[in-house]
């Protein structure tokens, strides 16, 4: 089936089987930040932003994203957009393999675009579907919450 998809502000056309998931398609195009964890919609490691909404790309068919815009972690500029987060993560020092981080950051960005100054509850809610196998999610979520506190008003 033929679809068109804008990935990180660049237009693409694909001819693919209807059962190809969005995460499979993105990884086949070299967007390796889209991780494959559970591949069942439970861990959030494959989170991308689709037309402004954070989605689990492993349980979505690529054809469902036809004519939409998908943003992956490759498009996030860590040097500017998320600079405070980088520093806080280093301070916390307990992020282990980092496998969960791209998905968590995409969930965080989707939240910030919608709510520039989120409450603690809104942050926790946005990250509720993001699982970190190394640290039981406690440290990354704490680091992200702290970074958002530092970024308040700068987004
Ligand atoms: S890999 Fe998609 S939710 Fe776990
Ligand atoms: S740091 Fe390893 S999965 Fe989160």
Describe, in short, the structure shown.
By secondary structure, this protein is an alpha+beta fold. The protein contains five helices and five strands. The longest helix has 14 residues, at 101-114.
Principal-axes shape call: globular
CATH architecture of the largest domain: Roll
Number of domains: 2
- Radius of gyration, taken over Cα atoms and rounded to an integer in Å: 15 Å
Mean pLDDT: 87
Cofactors, ions, other ligands: FE2/S2 (inorganic) cluster
In CATH, the topology of the largest domain is named: Ubiquitin-like (UB roll)
Structure write-up:
- By secondary structure, this protein is an alpha+beta fold.
- It has 2 domains: 2-75, Roll (Ubiquitin-like (UB roll)); 83-151, [2Fe-2S]-binding domain (DNA polymerase, domain 1).
- It is 34% helix and 15% strand.
- It has helices at residues 22-28, 83-92, 101-114, 120-126, 138-151; strands at 2-7, 10-15, 47-50, 53-56, 69-71.
- The protein has a 5-stranded mixed sheet, with helices on one face.
- Helix 2 (83-92) crosses helix 5.
- The model has no long low-confidence stretch (mean pLDDT 87).
- The structure holds FE2/S2 (inorganic) cluster (2 copies).
- Residues 36-39, 41-46, 56, 58 line the site of one FE2/S2 (inorganic) cluster.
- One FE2/S2 (inorganic) cluster (FES) binds at residues 95-100, 132-135, 140.
Chain-wise SSE layout:
Elements: E1 2-7, E2 10-15, H1 22-28, E3 47-50, E4 53-56, E5 69-71, H2 83-92, H3 101-114, H4 120-126, H5 138-151
Parallel strand pairs: 1-5
Antiparallel strand pairs: 1-2, 3-4, 3-5
Helix pairs in contact: 2-5
The structure holds FE2/S2 (inorganic) cluster (2 copies).
One FE2/S2 (inorganic) cluster is lined by residues 95-100, 132-135, 140.
